[in-house]
Automatic annotation (TrEMBL):
Alphabetized Pfam families for the sequence: F_actin_bund_C (PF18060)
GO cellular component, one term: cortical cytoskeleton
Domain Calcium-regulated actin-bundling protein C-terminal, residue spans: 98-182
GO molecular function, one term: actin filament binding
Compositional bias per record (Low complexity), positions renumbered to this chain: 34-49, 199-219
Coiled coil recorded as keyword: yes
Alphabetical list of InterPro entries matching this protein: Calcium-reg_actin-bundling (IPR053356), F_actin_bund_C (IPR040810)
BP GO terms, sorted: actin crosslink formation; parallel actin filament bundle assembly
Official protein name in the record: Calcium-regulated actin-bundling protein C-terminal domain-containing protein
Bias type Basic and acidic residues, positions: 50-59, 179-198
Region feature Disordered, mapped onto this chain: 34-59, 179-219
Coiled coil, from the record: 89-123
Amino acid sequence: KLQAVQDAFDASTKADAEAAAALNDARSKENSAVAAENEAVAAENSAKATEADAIQKENAAKAREADAVAADEAAKAKEAAAIEAEAPFKAAQAEVAAALAEVQAQEKAYNEKTESLKKQSEEGGVVTRNKAKVSLDAHLAEDPLPLRKAKITLEAANKRADKARAPFQAASEKAEAARKVAQAAREEAEAKAREAESARQAASAAREQAEQARAAAVA
């Protein structure tokens, strides 16, 4: 009987130990599961915060992009207006330059004729030389003053045209420079907007993965 009691006691002690071990194991697993769940929740919250920040930055970058695009378009419009305003003065200058070139061509023709008649008056037979000399005298007797005066007048007109066009030319150059700056700003803003969009997409993907990990930890 004593042995039976001892065996029963040993069996009970063993059962108690096994039950305690099972309880400790269950508690350990529960604690691990809770810790894993808490970690997953924290990671999910962090991913959501990162995504929210990325969305905010993306929206800000796109807003700056829109402003840069508008500024670029406005600069292009100003440049076009400045070029259009300058156009009549460019045309006037071109007309003056063409007229001046014509006067210079006439003067060149006059000088060439003079040289030709001089040469004829010095070469060939007597009759030919005398005839050429008469023609030369008549040619030289013609007053070239109108030709010179026209040239001076045209040169002065050309200078006046340049002076009149200068402010418009400066405006065109200024508008062109502003347009280049605006275009560069637009390109930079567009690039940053694309970068922000990519960052937001990556943050959204990370948030989705964190949600899946949290769901797996809870299950």
